[in-house]
């Protein structure tokens, strides 16, 4: 699996559609200060489901929509599409290419899709769970993050290893199953109460 393409429209400083094609191996984004290099990394975090405006260096989510310049009006929405090559099948979906799109309007409403089909944010989280990609993945290492990882508590650092060995999915499923079991336990107690009242 590798990052193949990024399409950005109306996101931060990119008012016009920007298409970036990546090849296998190392790619570098270079440019003068303030030209939008970090905005590209932000767009990747955002399309993969980032919900914190602070992480995207804004104060509210609307800040990621192109705010206009002296010669150009602000835009009403932002959209980013990220495409991964999935010929090795690392992403658990039967497509050789996987595209995730996120669009946001000034009202705050967000829309997500996987290969053009509308989906929930949860579907995107689940798709990338245990791949190292995704909002909580280790594929984007921001400034200061290495320091934070090294100085974090072992139990917090453990999450990174769990993602790398691929057990986050199972831990989440276990938690969900335990929640359902607890609800059923409560239901059973209620049923037993009703039966004893009837007897
Ligand atoms: P440096 O090398 O200094 O870190 P950079 O190339 O990483 O810079 P970015 O931080 O990605 O640059 O981009 C900053 C620019 O993006 C600023 O000029 C800022 O005004 C612009 N910008 C951020 N949000 C928006 C927005 N919503 N609308 C328009 N422009 C925006």
Automatic annotation (TrEMBL):
Residues that bind ATP: 32-39
Coiled coil start-end: 167-199
Domain of life: Bacteria
Compartments in which it is found: Cytoplasm
Oligomeric and partner information: Homodimer.
Job of this protein: Required for chromosome condensation and partitioning.
Family statement: Belongs to the SMC family.
Free-text note on domains in this protein's UniProt record: Contains large globular domains required for ATP hydrolysis at each terminus and a third globular domain forming a flexible hinge near the middle of the molecule. These domains are separated by coiled-coil structures.
Protein name per UniProt: Chromosome partition protein Smc
The species this protein was found in: Defluviitalea raffinosedens
């Amino acid at each position: 699996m590798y990052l193949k393409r990024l399409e950005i429209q109306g996101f931060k400083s990119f008012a016009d559609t920007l298409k970036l094609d990546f090849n296998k191996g190392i790619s570098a984004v270079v440019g003068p200060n303030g030209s939008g290099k970090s905005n590209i990394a932000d767009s990747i975090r955002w399309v993969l489901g980032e919900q914190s405006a602070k992480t995207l260096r804004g104060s509210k989510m609307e800040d990621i929509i192109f705010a206009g310049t002296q010669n150009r009006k602000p835009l009403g929405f932002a959209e980013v599409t990220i495409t991964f090559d999935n010929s090795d099948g690392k992403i658990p979906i039967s497509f050789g290419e996987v595209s995730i799109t996120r669009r946001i309007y000034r009202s705050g409403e967000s829309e997500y899709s996987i290969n053009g089909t509308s989906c929930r944010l949860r579907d995107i989280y689940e798709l990338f769970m245990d791949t190292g990609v995704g909002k909580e993945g280790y594929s984007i290492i921001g400034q200061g993050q290495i320091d934070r990882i090294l100085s974090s508590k072992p139990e917090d650092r453990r999450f990174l290893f769990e993602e790398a060995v691929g057990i986050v999915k199972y831990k989440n499923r276990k938690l969900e199953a335990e929640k359902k079991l607890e609800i059923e336990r409560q239901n059973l107690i209620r049923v037993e109460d009703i039966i004893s009242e009837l007897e």
